[in-house]
Design goal:
The protein is mostly helical. The protein has one domain. The protein is built from six helices and two strands. The protein has helices at 3-19, 30-36, 38-75, 81-106, 111-137, 163-169; strands spanning 25-28, 142-145. The chain has a two-stranded parallel ribbon with strand order 1-2. Helix 2 packs parallel to helix 6 (163-169), helix 3 (38-75) runs antiparallel to helix 4 (81-106) and helix 3 (38-75) runs antiparallel to helix 5. It is elongated and about 110 Å long. The chain starts with a helix and ends in a 7-residue tail after the last helix. 9% of the residues are buried.
Length: 176
Amino acid sequence: MNNSSKIVLLLFLILLSGSLKAQKFGYIDSEYILNKHPDYKIVQQELQKLSDNWKKEAQSLDKEIKEMYVQLKAEEVLLTEEMYQNRMQEIKKKEKASQEFNSRIFGIDGQYFQKQAELLQPLQSKIYDAIERVSRKNNLAMLFDKASVPSGIIYTDPRHDYSEFVLEELGIEDNN
């Protein structure tokens, strides 16, 4: 091997070793951070109020249906077959309306989950920005979320927990 190839190889190894510096990793617990944030409690209270109102409405519909069944049972002997079938159809319509209400409110893309996303989005953005600032300040290559499912994190060393730094960045003191 001639000298120029040795020099090129040596320079290549020096450049490569510079980029192989140890990477810093850390983790946070987003659930812990959320529970410590005062805005999260406000969001939870608002969602609970909405949920309670919607549940009352759903229970009211169910109560109406039960009352319709009780009334039908009480008057069953006095009704003609046609009248009985008409009442049953009314009850079935009311049951269908109740199911549609529950699906529209509490279903997968229901109003409850839409409202939850709408209320949590600004808070999540705030927390994400704080996480990004903490990661940059501490020169972290990666920051994992211990609370995410499935996180795949089996063991965590508390020395690498940056949750408190994120809370500090958000201006939240840990008062346990």
